[in-house]
Design a protein that fits this description.
Layout (H helix, E strand, L loop, with lengths): L6 E9 L2 E8 L18 H16 L3 E11 L10 E10 L4 E10 L2 E12 L1
Antiparallel strand pairs: 1-2, 2-4, 3-6, 4-5, 5-6
Length: 122
């Protein structure tokens, strides 16, 4: 985990259709002192890092985020209002080293982030 104690995985499941992970954010983490004081928001780069870490856990491989085809931050994630997040990830392996992922970060009826990312296995 790149940023210790920022989140923990509460539930993780995977099958042929993809990966679903529920995370719990730590609203008291030091990152929020700078992003942003008095109005904490999960940084977009950390959202992408969590996606990578979930994939690495499930695939049991180290990955390199090679290309972010698209990322849409639809609603800011505030850890006090939204301490739980669902990550839904579908993957398509195009060859032995390339993984194309479609990702949605949501909770209940809110979709916070959507992304299309290409990873390379190291």
């Amino acid at each position: 985990m790149l940023i210790k104690e920022f989140y923990k995985i509460a539930n993780l499941s995977s099958d042929d259709s993809g990966i679903v992970a529920t995370t719990k954010l730590n609203p008291d983490h030091e990152v929020y002192k700078g992003h942003f004081p008095g109005q904490p928001v999960v940084p977009g780069v950390i959202q992408l890092q969590i996606i990578k870490e979930i994939l690495e856990d499930v695939l049991e491989e180290k990955l390199f985020m090679g290309n972010i085809i698209q990322v849409k931050y639809l609603i800011p994630i505030t850890p006090l209002e939204n301490p739980e997040l669902n990550f839904t990830i579908t993957n398509k392996k195009t060859d032995s080293n390339i993984i194309k992922s479609n990702v949605s970060i949501s909770f209940n009826d809110k979709i916070f982030t959507k992304a299309k990312i290409v990873f390379r296995c190291l």
